[in-house]
């Protein structure tokens, strides 16, 4: 029946192959200096841009899901599936660099000069991804004192700079909305602090009673123990946590950090399992972007050595610095600092578990 309703579709027309397959115009041919590898160079970049488009498509849908007043479990599962798709694409993006590396640095030199000042630095879709994830302008590395958006043309600059909702902020809001983990007869953080204090005392005793340690070694181990102890302070003291945010040492709010830690600690509770998987998927996605940046920087080093980039940056040096500096969800990685063994976790009272159930249930809220 369907056959009559819908006109037949022709493969090449549906995919608009006439546009895609006629979009490889070699600069080296334009200058009558044919460079064989320029075709690969163009196709690889175009392939990346298509994947960037797909990633943005998924991110936009996650943003849509998280922009409502609350996220129910079904929608959280959809968001999780979207992020998992993104991470699978990212793996291909990393692998794909091997194909580009079949071009040797000398082959690249055959056409490199024709490309100046174009560069992946001007990939507006890559900048959109970064901004939608939550990379802040003030946290970006500058090169040659130029703002990243000043290298983009009008409409692209407009698109990139008008992003005003980020996944980071939406996830933070979502975490902050989790009902506070305190009921009339149970204060989770008090119990957690007692468990942490007990473990820290044990750790200290182990160092102090270890007869195989020299005085110097013991002193150094006790110093590092004090640092660990201090890092827990930010969990129990909101003001201290906020002072770290002001200094730029943390970004995720106090309340959101506590909720994210709670989800990580009690992931075995069925109600928290999907939130846990979602936070884990975000960590995975952030990790894959970091790996891509690193892998791209290494490839660039191999391709142009210590030369500056066609976009005018210090090249490999600039790119390597972004690997660490442009991570967005570092605070979620740092949560592992605060994990304690399951055996030491305070058990949750029934009324709290019921309260967490409300979290998903719109009607009861
Ligand atoms: C021969 C291959 C390549 C070389 C030598 C190269 C080189 C560079 C250099 C030097 C930069 C820093 C900006 C500049 O001064 O130009 C850069 C940035 C960038 N490149 Fe590449 N690249 C290559 C391939 C690719 C490919 C295939 C992609 C995929 C889209 C890509 C995406 C990017 C992106 C997104 C940036 C901005 C990174 C940031 O600012 O964090 N590059 N590239």
Walk me through this protein's architecture.
Helix 5 runs parallel beside helix 11 and helix 13 crosses helix 14. Helix content is 63%, strand content 1%. The protein is globular. The protein has one domain (2-358): Up-down Bundle (Methane Monooxygenase Hydroxylase, Chain G, domain 1). 19% of the residues are buried. It is built from 19 helices and two strands. It has a two-stranded antiparallel sheet. It has 365 residues and is mostly helical. The protein binds protoporphyrin IX containing FE. Protoporphyrin IX containing FE binds next to helix 5, helix 16 and helix 17.
Question: How would you summarize this macromolecular structure in one to three sentences?
Answer:
By secondary structure, the chain is an all-alpha fold.
Distinctive features:
binds protoporphyrin IX containing FE; 2 strands; mainly alpha; Methane Monooxygenase Hydroxylase, Chain G, domain 1; two-stranded antiparallel ribbon
Topology (SSEs and partners):
Layout: H1 2-5, H2 11-14, H3 17-20, H4 27-30, H5 38-66, H6 73-95, H7 97-100, H8 105-109, H9 124-133, H10 154-161, H11 167-177, E1 182-183, E2 186-187, H12 188-209, H13 215-236, H14 238-246, H15 254-265, H16 270-304, H17 316-325, H18 330-334, H19 350-358
Antiparallel strand pairs: 1-2
Helix pairs in contact: 5-6, 5-9, 5-11, 6-16, 9-10, 11-15, 12-13, 13-14, 16-17
The structure holds protoporphyrin IX containing FE (HEM).
């Amino acid at each position: 029946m369907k056959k009559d309703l819908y006109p037949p579709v022709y493969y090449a027309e549906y995919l608009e192959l006439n546009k895609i397959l006629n979009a490889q115009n070699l600069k080296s041919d334009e200058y009558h200096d044919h460079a064989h590898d320029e075709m690969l160079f163009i196709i690889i970049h175009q392939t990346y841009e298509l994947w960037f488009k797909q990633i943005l498509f998924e991110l936009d849908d996650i943003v849509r899901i998280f922009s409502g007043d609350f996220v129910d479990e079904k929608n959280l599962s959809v968001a999780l599936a979207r992020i998992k798709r993104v991470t699978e694409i990212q793996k291909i993006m990393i692998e794909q660099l091997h194909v580009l590396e079949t071009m040797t640095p000398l082959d690249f030199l055959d056409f490199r000069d024709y490309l100046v000042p174009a560069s992946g630095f001007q990939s507006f879709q890559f900048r959109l991804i970064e901004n939608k994830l939550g990379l802040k302008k003030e946290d970006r590395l500058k090169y040659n004192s130029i703002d990243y958006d000043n290298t983009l043309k009008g409409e692209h600059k407009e698109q990139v700079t008008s992003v005003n909702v980020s996944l980071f902020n939406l996830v933070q809001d979502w975490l902050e909305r989790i009902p506070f983990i305190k009921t009339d007869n149970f204060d989770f953080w008090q119990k957690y602090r007692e468990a942490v204090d007990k473990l820290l005392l044990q750790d200290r005793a182990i160092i102090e009673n270890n007869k195989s340690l020299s005085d110097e070694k013991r002193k150094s181990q006790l110093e590092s123990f004090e640092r660990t102890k201090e890092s827990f302070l930010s969990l129990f003291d909101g003001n201290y946590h906020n002072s770290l945010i002001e200094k730029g040492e943390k970004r995720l709010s106090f309340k959101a950090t506590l909720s994210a830690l709670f989800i990580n600690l009690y992931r075995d509770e069925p109600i928290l399992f999907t939130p846990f998987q979602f936070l884990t998927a975000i960590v995975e996605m952030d990790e894959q972007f970091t790996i891509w940046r690193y892998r791209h920087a290494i490839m660039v080093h191999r391709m142009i050595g210590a030369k500056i980039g066609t976009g005018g940056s210090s090249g490999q040096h600039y790119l390597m610095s972004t690997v660490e500096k442009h991570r967005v969800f570092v605070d979620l990685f740092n949560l592992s600092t605060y994990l304690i063994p399951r055996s030491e976790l305070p058990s949750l009272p029934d009324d709290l578990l019921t309260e967490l159930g409300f979290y998903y249930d719109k009607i009861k809220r």
